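Hello K.,

You asked for the raw outputs rather than the summary table, so here they are, unedited. I folded two proteins back to back in the same session to keep the settings identical. This is the first:
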Amino acid sequence: ERRLTYAVYMLIGEAEHWWRGTHHTLTARGVVVDWECFRRMFLEKYFPERVRHAKEAEFMRLHQGGMTVSEYAMRFEHLARFYSQGIAEAWKCRKFAEGLKYELKRVVVPMAITEFPALVEKAKVVERLEGGNRVVKTAEGPAECYVVWQVYQIV
């Protein structure tokens, strides 16, 4: 029950006052106050079900859009916490890869990476190379071949 002790220690202001009152009420009723009890009460108070459902829906709709891979990964990880079904690592990777911009997805998806940190790193490398590719495309000849070779090396 270290998590409970640590979480309560971290509460400040309104949340601290709320928990003191809630803890007193629960113990007076004979409720065993453990981590799961605290977690349930905290989420009910500060993350109502409608908010959790909205975040879960946002997660399911999430695509990279105008974000960098790093920004997309941070947003993805943040929203994934609200997904109620539990996330297997392989599914998480497929969901993330499918949400990438097309020019990144076409390189990353065939790699079939099933470890999330490795997938994010590969996507960052491809993003960096694709960024360079846009500049090089105006040039002709060997420079363009070099960029294609760089992308090939990732695969």
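The second followed immediately with the same parameters:
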Amino acid sequence: MQLQPVEKLSDVGMRIRQFRQDAGLSQEKLAELVGVTPQQIQKYETSKTRISTDKLQIIAAALKIHVADFFSDRSHLTLNAPETLFIKKLRKVRDPEVHESLGVLLDRLAR
């Protein structure tokens, strides 16, 4: 069995951009959270610069995702407009207790 590379660098860069946009963050804001310049974020997103695993972990934490999400095929995950709006509103809620309560409510509604 021949092993294939997990991802091309360009795929990871495109996913950084997509997750950043999904989170409603500018390159400037993500750069501030990560501790690099906006130009460096642009280089990551356009695959002009390799990303260390340490930096990738910091970027994932800033985007509130798992590092594995950069390497997962998300093509099967498409959201309709109401779902996208719901997620944008949910991300604006900063209180962890409210997040937990919403999770409990959704679990009950999904039964």
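The longest helix spans residues 9-22.

Happy to rerun anything if the numbers look odd on your end.

Regards,
P.
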